């Protein structure tokens, strides 16, 4: 009997352990890189990279290091709820499982092509659901406006390349209508929302109502996303992990999508 038990145990040890597999499928980078051309809000400090070392050391080996500085809200980044909702979650307080989930992509490129001030409506979501079914619980809702094709041309992407407070009134790019934001927050149970423009509210917004509505419901937003054109209307998975800034109202974001096989 002992010989049989030993043989079974040995056979079990010789087999590889069952492990949870990473979802199969092509991986798509949804983030723009940070550099001299990165687009920032007109009043935000831009990205700076300071070279500290780059070359051979006295010890005979190569060494490189840099310092960097950036505002929270520029490039591909996350808006934490506290950005527009006092007392709500900052970046490091957002649960990790809220930063990943099934992606649904609402394509409004046709509407945005003829109207840079377009705001995604509840009718756009109703049209998506008519074809694809109800937005699932835990979804990450992605709005494809087509504006990522203008990156990093600030004049085309933002509506103006000017900097400073006076430039804010000249911003023209699509966003989410406040009524649609309220509908999503109150009628669907989504993890997060993202889009390929500089703000979840459209460029001409002065009250930032979509920000306020979403963040009061602790729904974070991913802004300045890239390559949404490579994602299907449904079936992809998104993982969007920000720099873990304690108390941050936002942070640089590395977001990826895993396409369905």
Verbal overview:
The chain is α/β, with parallel strands linked by helices and 261 residues long. The chain has six helices and twelve strands. The protein has helices at residues 2-14, 109-114, 122-132, 154-157, 178-187, 209-216, and strands spanning 27-29, 48-56, 62-69, 77-79, 100-107, 119-120, 140-144, 175-176, 192-195, 221-223, 234-242, 250-258. A hairpin with a 5-residue loop joins strand 2 (48-56) and strand 3 (62-69). Helix 5 runs parallel beside helix 6. The radius of gyration is 22 Å and the shape is globular. The relative contact order is 0.23. The model is unreliable at 1-15 (pLDDT under 50).
SSE order and pairing:
Blueprint: H1 2-14, E1 27-29, E2 48-56, E3 62-69, E4 77-79, E5 100-107, H2 109-114, E6 119-120, H3 122-132, E7 140-144, H4 154-157, E8 175-176, H5 178-187, E9 192-195, H6 209-216, E10 221-223, E11 234-242, E12 250-258
